[in-house]
Design goal:
alpha+beta, four-stranded antiparallel sheet, 11 helices
């Protein structure tokens, strides 16, 4: 018979996973239930919402910790520095307010959709993923965690307990932009997150740019990030080059043709950088 388990502690959850690695983790349920559809009654589920240690969003002097049960609404309501604006802006684009009230940031990442809004914003922030398993707790970069469409680097008996973001330098700013067929309740055609740090003269001394929905896994643009160093707002338009986007692999689907995605990304990147600089 299918199982429905609701552990009260992390240790209890890990014990269940050790005995049944096929258990599907249930937190907000906004991705799990639609994916399973009529199969939900025949799948073993483990509801982790009773584990207090996985709750909450905490901002310290050094980092932001987003627990596995923290919802998008919680992140949006936090009084975060401007460096985290991209993450909060991405949260406002996740489904509807009802979805944001239930859906978790960690779940958005673990779902590993190429169009996951949270992955793009967190990738620009060099986020780390905290993973608990039989051998203890480990951390790995988000860039390594999402390995493909609906694929993540979890081993048997493991699940994600938090996302960690090192606090950027004071004065860092970020922005997130999403292109869709309509304003709300839409899956991305393309999206971009930019995190920018500037010196006292307004020149960029650090840049992180991430693009989503234009390749199987969200991508950073390292060539452009390096070229932006030392530039000011007036220099941004001329800084972008076709080779900056060579690593992307947009597809054509019901939302947009591949050529449209390719043409849209440079515009979104330029706007996101400018918005971050103006924040």
């Amino acid at each position: 018979m299918p199982a429905f388990l609701r552990p009260a502690t992390l240790q209890e959850a890990l014990a269940h996973l050790a005995q049944a690695p096929e258990l599907r983790i249930l937190a907000g349920g906004t991705d799990v239930y639609p994916t399973l559809g009529d199969q939900v009654a025949r799948v073993a589920l483990m509801d982790i919402t009773g584990i207090e240690a996985l709750q909450g969003v905490t901002l310290s002097d050094s980092s932001l910790r987003i627990g596995a049960l923290a919802t998008w609404t919680e992140v949006q309501r936090m009084g975060l520095p401007p460096a985290f604006a991209a993450l909060q802006q991405a949260g406002r684009e996740v489904g509807s307010p009802q979805v944001q009230n239930s859906g978790t940031v960690v779940g958005n990442i673990c779902n590993a959709s190429p169009a996951a809004d949270g992955t793009v914003a967190l990738l620009a922030m060099d986020a780390m993923v905290e993973i608990a398993g039989p051998q203890g707790t480990r951390e790995m970069p988000l860039a390594d965690f999402v390995t493909g469409v609906r694929q993540v680097a979890l081993q048997a008996g493991e699940f994600v307990t938090a996302v960690l973001v090192k606090r950027p330098a004071t004065g860092a700013k970020s922005a997130f932009l999403k292109l869709g067929a309509r304003r709300y309740l839409v899956i991305s055609i393309a999206m971009v997150a930019a995190l920018i740090e500037c010196d006292a003269q307004g020149r960029i001394n650090r840049a992180a740019i991430a693009v989503g929905a234009c390749s199987p896994v969200a991508q950073r643009l390292p060539g452009l990030e390096k070229r932006l160093i030392g530039l000011g707002k007036a220099d941004i338009k001329g800084a972008l080059r076709p080779e900056d986007f060579a690593g992307l692999a947009p597809i054509g689907d019901v939302r947009a043709e591949a050529a449209y995605r390719s043409a849209s990304v440079p515009v979104l990147v330029r706007r996101a950088i400018t918005r971050a600089l103006e924040a």
